[in-house]
Structures are given as C-alpha cells and as structure tokens.
Design brief:
The protein has about 230 residues and is of the alpha+beta class. The chain contains four helices and 13 strands. About 30% of the residues are buried.
Length: about 230
C-alpha cells in the first residue's frame, strides 16, 4: 500500500491551537536540571502524547533512526537548531527537521547515530555536543523509528552544511516552540479516517537576512510537542 503523503501542509485547515495550555517557564533551565529530568524519566514509564504514524499501512520495513535536538544557549535565551532539507530528497524533501538520519550498522546506539548525522549534515563536531538525554522514539509515516537525542550545543557554532541534504540551518527560540498557543492542530480526512498533525510556524530571517516563514510541522513538530510535555512534568 502507498503511504500517506501531504504535499502542502499549509493548505490543510487549522482546527485550532492549544492556547489553553501554559507556556513553559524556561527560567532556571540548564544542563544540570535537564539531566535530572532525564534521570527521572529513566525510572518511570512515560507515554508521550505523540508516538507517531507508524500504524499507517505501508510496504516499507521499520528502520531505526535518530535526530539531534540541539539546544543552544544564547544571551537572548535558549535556541533550537533546525535544518531545512533540500527539495530533491526522497523523504521529507524541503521540510524543516532536526539533524539526523538512519542508524548505520557501525553506530553503537541512537546517540552515536545522532552525533554522526549531525556532523555529516551540518558539520557539528561531537566535542561541542553535550548529550543530556533522549525522548521516547517517534515512528514516522515513512517508517523510521526515530529517537530524539537532546543535547546542549556550545557556541560558537561554525557549521559546514552538506549541500546535498541541507539547504539551510537556522535557530528558533525555544520559548516560541514551548508555547502551546503557537501549536496549530491541522485536521483532515484520509481514506475515511480523521487524521491530524501539528505545526509551529515561525517568522525568522533566512541565511541572506530576508524575512521568511519556517513552517515546522509533522514529525519535527510532534517531537517538539513531546519535549514540551516532558519539560512540563
């Protein structure tokens, strides 16, 4: 069976936002507090709000993958490193994503995958990456079981992009992403079943300094929402 494809997520109607939920208070958030939270997660069963679209029928086998959820401490507050994928890729072309990809046989674990992929995609040296934990896996509609590896990235970041995979790397304020009033719920019908996905649009500046809307949606938005739920616990 062919998998579900949404060619233009902006065209899918917005049913509402989650403005009824409080914005996350990021005051006091640091490496120590993040590690403490992840240690508490290790000893407790926690089911994230979004586990993925892996149940959607597909003829593709499940494949392990990992992404790096990079938090960058800046004077103006925490930022999240994201990328815009090039338009010619087979999966998730042109979409906003975290650095990451499929697990290779030589990768020891999800952390190794995330670090390797981040170095390959955006030239991020592992020495600048302080891993603090990982969120539960998220299964994409393209059948990747993705482990979000959360880390603090130590600036300055002199990134070198892989032009084949990455069109642009940029930072988004964590506060914007951790404010549910910015979490839009899109609802649509597919094969007689009601489906939904999240988006978190952000107005920023492109690499050439021009205003641009970054439409963060799908798996990336879902993993960010899981991060919100985790940090809210």
């Amino acid at each position: 069976m062919t998998r579900l494809r949404i060619l233009d997520p902006r065209a899918v109607p917005v049913a509402g936002t989650d403005a009824h939920l409080p914005a996350l208070n990021l005051q006091g958030l640091d490496a120590h507090s993040l590690r403490s939270r992840f240690r508490s997660l290790a000893g407790n069963a926690w089911k994230p709000e979004f586990e993925g679209d892996g149940r959607w029928p597909s003829d593709r086998e499940l494949a392990a993958a990992a992404v790096l959820v990079g938090l960058v401490p800046r004077p103006k507050g925490w930022q999240v490193l994201l990328t815009r994928r090039t338009d010619h890729l087979r999966d998730h072309a042109g979409q906003i994503s975290f650095p990451g990809g499929r697990q290779e046989p030589d990768d020891a674990d999800a952390v190794a995958t995330a670090l390797r992929e981040a170095e390959e995609e955006v030239g991020l040296p592992p020495a600048l990456v302080d891993v603090v934990g990982a969120l539960p896996p998220y299964t994409t509609v393209t059948r990747f079981v993705v482990t979000p590896v959360v880390a603090i990235l130590q600036p300055p970041l002199a990134l070198q992009l892989d032009a084949f995979e990455v069109a642009e790397a940029f930072e988004v304020p964590l506060q914007h992403l951790m404010t549910p009033a910015h979490h839009q719920r899109h609802v649509f019908q597919a094969e007689g079943v009601e489906r939904q996905f999240l988006s978190m649009p952000w107005q920023g500046l492109s690499a050439d300094g021009q205003p641009r809307e970054y439409f963060i949606w799908g798996a990336t938005a879902a993993m960010l929402r899981n991060l919100y739920a985790f940090l809210s616990r």
